């Protein structure tokens, strides 16, 4: 006979497609937890059947009433509560952080059962740099908010990871090309499922590919980091110095241009004095 789980919160990563990716430890927790908090009972019921679990489910998402969250935290004092999202690791663009925050504040035991994440799986498939990356979740639907979000990260020297839906994919890729530059990218969908696909190319090429054929399924977009900027020419530096000297003293103008182009400040100061003369 299995011993009772310790009371607390168990964050359980589920498969992102293939049910065989559920870890034995995760399946054990799903069979033994006192209650399982899920996004959608219809989606999670299939996984629980696969795991051989008949434990009761309770719908929970980040828009649940605070009372629902408070009752779950209260139950964690004497019961084991498993948190399960529709796919992959809970909290990664999925419900859960508020529950974890409140459980930690209440001093409850919290443990996580690592497993699949669509963002990381797509990154490994992309062939783009993996040493430094930023997960962005879903871009805003409105054009201005989307452009503002992209502008915030345009200069970041890191690979970017986005989630997206099929109907919005082409427009989002076009917006990324406009806001980030026409970078190398990859679009992965249906990871670990029968029709898994990863398409690579520039953002513009990929936008055109999906313009008339929006794909189905769960989609992850991976965008490579910006390329190295070409070194500034003497003409570019002179133009920048002249413009800056209209607004600033010579020393500050030289400093501004040095920072902008990555050039030597003393050399620029000497050149600025020549230009001023």
From TrEMBL:
CDD domains: RsmI. Pfam families: RsmI_C, TP_methylase. It catalyses: cytidine(1402) in 16S rRNA + S-adenosyl-L-methionine = 2'-O-methylcytidine(1402) in 16S rRNA + S-adenosyl-L-homocysteine + H(+). Gene3D superfamilies: Cobalt-precorrin-4 Transmethylase, Domain 1 (3.40.1010.10), Methyltransferase, Cobalt-precorrin-4 Transmethylase, Domain 2 (3.30.950.10). Signal peptide: none annotated. PANTHER family: RIBOSOMAL RNA SMALL SUBUNIT METHYLTRANSFERASE I. This is Ribosomal RNA small subunit methyltransferase I. It comes from Sphingobium baderi LL03. The lineage of its organism: Bacteria, Pseudomonadati, Pseudomonadota, Alphaproteobacteria, Sphingomonadales.
């Amino acid at each position: 006979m299995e011993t009772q789980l310790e009371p607390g919160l168990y964050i359980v990563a589920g498969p992102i497609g293939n049910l065989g990716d559920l870890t034995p430890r995760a399946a054990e927790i799903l069979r033994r937890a006192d209650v399982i908090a899920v996004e959608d009972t219809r989606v999670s019921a299939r996984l629980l059947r696969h795991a051989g679990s008949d434990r009761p489910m309770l719908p929970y998402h980040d828009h649940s009433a605070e009372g629902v969250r408070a009752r779950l935290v209260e139950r964690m004092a004497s019961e084991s509560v498993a948190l399960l999202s529709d796919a992959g690791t809970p909290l990664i663009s999925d419900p859960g952080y508020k529950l974890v925050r409140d459980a930690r504040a209440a001093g409850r035991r919290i443990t996580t059962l690592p497993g699949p994440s669509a963002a990381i799986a797509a990154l490994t498939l992309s062939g783009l740099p993996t040493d430094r990356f930023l997960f962005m979740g879903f871009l805003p639907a409105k054009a201005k908010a989307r452009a503002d979000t992209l502008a915030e990260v345009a200069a970041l020297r890191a690979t970017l990871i986005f989630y997206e839906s099929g109907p919005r994919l082409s427009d989002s890729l076009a917006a990324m090309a406009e806001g980030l530059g026409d970078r190398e990218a990859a679009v992965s969908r249906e990871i670990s499922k029968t029709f898994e696909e990863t398409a690579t190319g520039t953002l513009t090429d990929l936008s055109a590919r999906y313009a008339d054929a929006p794909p189905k399924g769960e989609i992850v977009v991976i965008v490579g980091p910006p390329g190295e900027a070409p070194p500034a020419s003497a003409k570019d530096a002179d133009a920048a110095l002249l413009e800056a000297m209209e607004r600033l003293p010579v020393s500050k103008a030289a400093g501004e241009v040095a920072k902008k182009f990555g050039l030597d400040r003393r050399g620029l100061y000497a050149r600025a004095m020549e230009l001023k003369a």
